[in-house]
């Protein structure tokens, strides 16, 4: 009996692949309507954080060649989003809803008038060329997502790991998730590469 | 003298009566956790590393698209190819694939379909963005770039 069980056990041991379905999520924009002209960009230029990648995997961030690491990029995106340069009414509400350590951090970053107005307005735009490697694309996307996740996690006072592990089927955790996300949209725009 | 004789009548063997039970327990554990691989992946799959990973909430809503250099380069060449289910497809066949996958779901869930892109690190963005354009066309807008956890430095 034990022999047969052993045999089966070894069979299942060998065939088992522990599934690892984890990754970076992204919501693609809806398909453009051919009857309507492409929407005009009404955003103020300073509210758009532009990241470009070329075919030799070089980055152009805010119109300047970028040499720093992905960690630096993450920090810069975070500073950009949390820059309350010229906040709208909604932006002021967002600012007041932040916990005090985060307000202190925002004040430490300083308010730069040439950077974004407030988190409700800003957009991070990332455009990769056809020849850009997928690895770089994922690294940049990871950095941008990392910046937003840090903001959300800080806003409700948990660590980034806890934020990523939030279970949306649980009401309390879902409420926390919505509280963190409210009025700070994860505005990541992935531009189509040129043909 | 015999007073100090070592008493050596203790049993040396491990009792094996419970062994089959333990083996059965392990067996059931692996039987339950095993997912039989449905598709035979024909492209290289070295997934990129990232830190901000989220887990898929509902497995039934996920369909997979594999992109990478074919393993059998003698037959298929070394240009990256797209694989869905068990076959290589061209980018313009993705729409058809998505509608097939959507048909498997109930009507209320069709818009929540998530496409898990398993893309090899060596692939260039061109083919990936072609697939993304097709996914927009097919109205399957939730995309998951499958990646593995980067070790903390």
TrEMBL record, chain B:
Annotated localization: Cell membrane
One Pfam family, short name: ExbD
Top-rank taxon, per record: Bacteria
Broad class of the protein's primary localization: membrane
TM spans (from-to): 17-36
InterPro entries: ExbD (IPR003400)
Membrane topology reported for the UniProt record: Single-pass membrane protein; Single-pass type II membrane protein
Keywords for the protein's UniProt record, in alphabetical order: Cell membrane, Membrane, Protein transport, Transmembrane, Transmembrane helix, Transport
Sequence similarity: Belongs to the ExbD/TolR family.
Protein name: ExbD/TolR family protein
Natural source organism: Marinoscillum luteum
């Amino acid at each position: 009996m034990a022999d047969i069980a052993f045999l089966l056990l070894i069979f299942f041991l060998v065939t088992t692949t522990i599934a690892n379905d984890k990754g970076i999520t992204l919501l693609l924009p809806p398909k453009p309507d051919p009857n309507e002209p492409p929407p005009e960009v009404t955003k103020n230029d300073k509210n758009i954080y532009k990241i470009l990648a070329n075919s030799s995997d070089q980055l152009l961030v805010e119109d300047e060649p970028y040499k720093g690491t992905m960690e630096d990029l993450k920090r810069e995106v975070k500073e950009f989003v949390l820059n309350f340069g010229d906040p709208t009414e909604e932006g002021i509400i967002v600012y007041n809803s932040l916990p005090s350590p985060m307000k202190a951090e925002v004040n430490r970053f300083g308010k730069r008038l040439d950077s974004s107005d407030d988190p409700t307005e800003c957009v991070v735009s990332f455009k990769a060329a056809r020849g850009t490697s997928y690895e770089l694309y994922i690294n940049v996307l990871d950095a941008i997502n990392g910046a937003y996740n840090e903001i959300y996690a800080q806003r409700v006072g948990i660590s980034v790991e806890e934020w990523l592990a939030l279970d949306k089927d649980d009401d309390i955790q879902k409420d926390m998730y919505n509280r963190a996300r409210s009025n700070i949209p994860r505005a990541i725009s992935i531009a189509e590469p040129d043909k | 003298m015999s007073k100090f004789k070592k008493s050596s009548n203790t049993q040396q063997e491990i009792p094996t009566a419970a062994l089959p039970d333990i083996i059965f327990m392990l067996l059931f554990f692996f039987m339950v956790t095993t997912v039989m691989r449905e598709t035979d992946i024909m492209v290289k799959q070295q997934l990129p590393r990232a830190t901000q990973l989220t887990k898929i909430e509902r497995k039934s809503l996920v369909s997979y698209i594999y992109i990478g250099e074919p393993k059998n380069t003698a037959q298929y060449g070394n240009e990256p190819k797209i694989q869905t289910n068990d076959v290589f497809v061209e980018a313009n066949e993705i729409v058809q694939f998505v509608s097939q996958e959507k048909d498997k779901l109930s009507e209320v869930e069709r818009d929540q379909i998530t496409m898990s892109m398993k893309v090899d690190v060596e692939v260039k963005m061109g083919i990936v963005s072609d697939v993304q354009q097709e996914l927009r066309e097919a109205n399957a807008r939730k995309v998951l770039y499958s990646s593995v956890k980067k070790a903390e430095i």
